[in-house]
Amino acid sequence: MLALSRVNKTFNAGTVNEQHALRDLSLLLEDGDFVVVVGGNGSGKSTLLNTIAGVYTPDSGQVVLDGRDVTWIAEHARARSIGRVFQDPMRGTATDMTIEENLALALRRGTRRTLAAGTKRSERATFREALARLDLGLEDRLTTKVGLLSGGQRQALTLLMATLVKPQILLLDEHTAALDPKTAKKVLDLSAALIEEDYLTTLMVTHNMSDAIRFGNRLVMMQEGRIVFEASGTVKSALTVGELVDKFISVGSEVLV
């Protein structure tokens, strides 16, 4: 579903602030893969997601999504195929619009807009059914402005919007980092349920080593723009947090040598 081939990205090239964010990085995601990405600050995790989403254009290399070369496709044109949830709960929704209006926008992602009524009666039934899956009582608050929701409710709504029309790939960019532990667990569990039920190809970035082991069928560790460790299947499930932290420290030392 997704193939990155020898992707490089450097910021501020030729200056004292030169930063090699991605270094000859290659990554393949099969249809239905749920890949968790871990790594320290500056390891290239967010740059990786931004390159997939089209926010950044690589200096070299290729990005192929479902067999289509999207390396040079603009972010807005690529967005119809990509669902994304950001770390900041405020980034994925329109504050001054209602829950219903936000969902209507998500439902029409990638389609031609008209001057017809914003929401149809049949769509409201779909929205209520989808919101009920969140178990947050939002199905009875369709006309509530999103700005009145809590951070957790808003992030759960953003997740629902990102998956309302099945994306070719779902990008989760530390999407629970700004939430309290109880709310973060609820949003993570909801994410895993939606991914499994809808068989979504997913790339999730996290700093939480426990979550990295618990979720997904594959784990990728990044360091200085490179993939330095991968684990899947029984190898991944057998990992402990201590072992993963030790691996993180050891590969970091190897990269720096």
Distance from N terminus to C terminus (CA atoms, Å) equals 35 Å
Number of strands: 10
Overall mean pLDDT stands at: 88
CATH topology: Rossmann fold
Helix/sheet category: alpha/beta
Number of H/I helices: 9
Low-confidence parts lasting 5 or more residues at pLDDT below 50?
A: none
Indicate the multimeric state: single chain
User: Which term fits the overall shape?
Assistant: globular
What radius of gyration results from the CA coordinates? 19 Å
Strand order of the largest sheet: 6-7-8-3-9-10
Largest sheet: 6 strands, mixed
CATH architecture heading: 3-Layer(aba) Sandwich
Helix content range of the residues, please?
Answer: 25-40%
- Order of helices and strands, N to C? EEEHEEHEHHHEHEHEEHH
Number of domains: 1
CATH homologous superfamily (4th level) name: P-loop containing nucleotide triphosphate hydrolases
Estimated share of beta-strand residues: 15-25%
In CATH, what is the class?
A: Alpha Beta
